[in-house]
Amino acid sequence: xxxxxxxxxxxxxxxxxFSCKKAPAPVLDDTFIETGDLLxxxxxMNYGDDNMAQAIADATSSGDTVNFIHTAIxxxxxEGAVWVIDATIAYGVDRHPLDTLLKQFTLHRGGTxxxxxxxxxxxxxxxxxVEKAKTWLGEPYDSSFLPENxxxxxxxxxxxxxxxxxxxxxxxxxxxxxxxxxxxxPSYWVRLFAELGEPVxxxxxxxxxxxxxxxxxxxHVMYLQGAE
Length: 228
What we know:
Strand 2 (66-76) and strand 3 (82-88) form a beta hairpin. Helix 3 (126-134) packs across helix 4 (154-161). The protein has helices at residues 52-60, 98-104, 126-134, 154-161, 187-196, 209-213; strands at 38-44, 66-76, 82-88, 92-97, 114-120, 174-175, 205-206, 218-224. It has one domain (30-224): endopeptidase domain like (from Nostoc punctiforme) (endopeptidase fold (from Nostoc punctiforme), Alpha-Beta Complex). The strands form two sheets. Strands 4-3-2-1-5-8 form a six-stranded antiparallel β-sheet. The protein has a two-stranded antiparallel sheet with strand order 6-7. By secondary structure, it is α+β, with helices and mostly antiparallel strands.
């Protein structure tokens, strides 16, 4: 499986309509969500736009119908409201209502992305993971996708936060891949890193949503329905 560390919530209308992985009913019931659950956002394979979402999908696709391009941490407060903690280009590391994320991923030609909630099975330390993630609120988004540089991208935030009391990371890192299945570097990455004045960090140790979604440590909880 090709791997790339990349995540983003694009603040603009991104995606095009698609049909894959149907969400079973009931599509949204907050009582099934628990603090520490992870929310994965997916787009269809071969979306076709020259943007970060498609560049992520091209580099991390495993041949499934859905390419997961963003990972967020879920938190349920004392009143039962569901919050999202994630790292995005639009807001950096931020905490906001779940509905805000669902609205941001409304597709620009109608419809919504795929939203899947997954959970670490038999892990009683998830509250501490969420609290650790919140210590980075206000930090900028890591457009360089480099470790330990005072910034975070989405799965980097999860990787750094989900560390147990023995110092063990619940997720692994992999060599980053930015190339598509033909072995070519998409124009999006060429432009982005040229603007940053940095080399593309091909092969640098990192993480990505598709990789985390396939982790054997996670179990499926439910699908969510996007905002209308």
